Amino acid sequence: MSAELAWKFERLPQLAASDVYDFLALRTEVFVVEQNCVFMDADGVDHDSWHLLGRDTGGRLLAYLRVVDPGIKYVEPSIGRVVTAPAARGNGLGRILLAEGIRRSQLIWPGQLVRIGAQHRLERFYQSFGFASTGAVYIEDNIPHIEMILAAPARGA
Known about the structure:
single chain, Aminopeptidase, 4-stranded antiparallel β-sheet, 3 helices, 8 strands, globular
């Protein structure tokens, strides 16, 4: 699947209007409509983030996440808004997306921890990448979440 995806990793000003429209539409489709959760997706954090978009050969956006600069949501850089298109699920694309996001985050901020606020139901998914829970479950937008942290890989690893 990854060989079929074209990745774009840019700051908001470098993205085309169509890229921004597509990722906002995908985030709304999944986080607002599918999960039946009314919340302010355009939270102001997109300006202080890198955006990872994965498109198929036809140009359809199938995978997206954002990597938020340190000091914006957490002291550490963070990964969030991790989403795959409903039509593209069940083939490991979420794993490919997250691995690509972690890799790119660690290229920009080598040696730094990465913190996430994960939906609690996905805790085991994130643990499989090395994230460890750092506190109690909390409610955000009426959905149980948990903070998790990924230790930076050892130098030379």
